[in-house]
Amino acid sequence: MQFPIYMDNHATTPVDPRVLEAMLPYFSGKFGNAASRSHAYGWTAEEAVSKARETIAKLIGASNPKEIVFTSGATESDNLALKGVAEFYKEKGNHIITTVVEHKAILDTCKRLEKQGYEVTYLNVDKDGLVDPDDVAKAITDRTLLVSVMLANNEVGSVQPIAEIGKITRARGVLLHSDAVQGIGKVPFDVEKMNVDLASVTAHKIYGPKGVGCLYVRRSKPRVRLTAQMDGGGHEFGMRSGTLNVPGIVGFAKAAEILIQEGEAESHKLFGLRERLRLRLMKELDELRVNGSMKSRLPGNLNVSFSFVEGEALMMAIKDVAVSSGSACTSASLEPSYVLHAMGVGDDLAHSSIRFGIGRFNTEEEIDYVADLVIGKVKKLREMSPLYEMFKEGIDLSSVQWAAH
Amino acid sequence: MAYSEKVIEHYENPRNVGALDKDDPEVGTGLVGAPACGDVMRLQIKVKDGIIEDAKFKTFGCGSAIASSSLATEWLKGKTVDEAETIKNSMIAEELNLPPVKIHCSVLAEDAIKSAISDFRTKQTARRALAGEPEAKADGEAAGARGE
């Protein structure tokens, strides 16, 4: 085993060796600019990009490869989708609907649009982190342009009912965008079957390189228009100027091809590993709470609150494992996760949460090692925890007058 | 976040983890912080003849919070109650090289010390009142008796 064991695959994934191999020729021998029309270097690059468009279109069920607009990644795709649609259709309306558990790339873009005079409705989620499609239906007005709901949540892995939401938005003539970054290739996603009009995808969450992604923009029924946010050479059908990252795009497509072939089998494997970890932890430790839906969940996600133990202290204890915490002490701010908060998880449990993101290269041996390590360290930290002692004495911690500080 | 070596050392080998009998009149208990804020410290002192002869802690919190309370118990032992009161959060923060975002851990440790001392003094006052003793400063006398 290689230490620290990487179990933070929602943050990013390593590049698959097959992806790296596919990319390498495009750094040196096949270095051409895909926009160069006058020589073979350009033609070779352009051919690689069009093949990549086809593969990525296939991965998400898009009928036309020209619906794939390459970007620098999902943050740019999210910005382009929301700002581009809002700007292009501003005569038609000014209202956007999204959810409180979206990635910051959506939430902060919405905040900026609000400052510019747009109205945004932020839908709440239930205790499992799921959006109710009925809430989407109720929020739509005659001024609504766009609904944006993520496919799967990056913290708790909850998979949103995109197909049901798509039925509603299509019937009401409203566009649907989905930040599909976390769910692509792991759970079913098909822009045609689900009536999705715009979708953000990034390569580095699917074992491709960082710095490349795409925005799916529907071309027919309805044809989606958007205002470019980057001015220049008019690349990507006028929607995103800038010389294409050809090696990155080739790697992105190779990663997509692997998922088309192996995604389903891989999801079964990830589910097995996740359940192995979950069941071991639940057997050996009391007072655990799994955050997020168990029915509609990413196969490789396990977000657990270890009550009476603080998340950052636990991460320090298990430094042989690379995971992340819902306790915000890790970041500059001291606020616990807004996603857990939105699900009604108390701040005490939010401070006690750890996110395990299991991926392609994790093994059963690693899962068992991590389970043993976590069990041992949680027991040790609970021995050190005044809260666990009080709980064992039968004291109701919610009845104690704590001095908030 | 990168922790200082001293924080890691205390975190991995915490001193004086445990509990003292909170009903013992010679024991003062301080419980500070809140679960919702991500840290709760319980610090206890056992005082004999004005000298803190034992100190124990249990902490729910990050590595810096655990290290701050561990260091506090180490410093408390052997001090008079009056001396213990002079321990400041800045001393703890400096000793452990706490970064700015972790200063609140040392503040909490100072609060825990103050709270434990206050609990001990309240108990002593109550005990004397019950016994009909005058309001003598028991720990003050003992501090003098140490002859330092």
UniProtKB/TrEMBL annotation, chain B:
Superkingdom per UniProt: Bacteria
Family membership: Belongs to the NifU family.
Function noted in UniProt: A scaffold on which IscS assembles Fe-S clusters. It is likely that Fe-S cluster coordination is flexible as the role of this complex is to build and then hand off Fe-S clusters.
Bilayer-crossing regions: none
Cited CDD domains: IscU_like (cd06664)
Pfam family name, one: NifU_N
Region Disordered, residue ranges: 128-148
Stretches assigned to the NIF system FeS cluster assembly NifU N-terminal domain: 2-125
GO CC annotations on file: cytoplasm
One of the record's GO molecular function terms: iron-sulfur cluster binding
Annotated source species: Chondromyces crocatus
Gene Ontology BP terms: iron-sulfur cluster assembly
PANTHER family: IRON-SULFUR CLUSTER ASSEMBLY ENZYME NIFU HOMOLOG
Protein name, as recorded: Iron-sulfur cluster assembly scaffold protein IscU
